[in-house]
Amino acid sequence: MSTAPDPRRCPLCGQPNDCAMQRQRDTGEPQPPCWCTTVRFERVVLERIPTEARRLACVCRACATAATPAPPSA
Ligand SMILES: [Zn+2]
User: 10: CA distance to ligand 1 center in Å?
Assistant: First the structure.
């Protein structure tokens, strides 16, 4: 038995994902562009998201950046 993923919570750590798009849906008020639009999600992060939560729940900023390797210093 599985429950529907909470779109407000990170499917990886369960913390609030602070998604601006979801907040806009909740409050009905325009929000600034979500932080996730400025972050490049690594494939390894996306692959860790349970299938049922994909496209439904955003990953939080901490999880999105934790798996991101530091950019190579040129
Ligand atoms: Zn998280």
Answer: 5
Per-residue pLDDT of 8-28, as tens digits, reads 999 999 999 988 888 899 999
Angstrom distances, CA of residue 67 to CA of 40, 46, 60: 11, 10, 12
Residue 65: partners with Cβ closer than 8 Å, 6 or more residues away: 39
Give distance in angstroms: CA of 29 to centre of ligand 1: 24
Q: How far is the CA of 9 from the centre of ligand 1 (A)?
A: 8
> Max alpha carbon distance in the chain (Å)?
49
How far away, in angstroms, is 17 Cα from ligand 1 center? 7
- Indicate the burial class of 14 (C-beta count within 10 angstroms; 0-12, 13-18, 19 or more): exposed
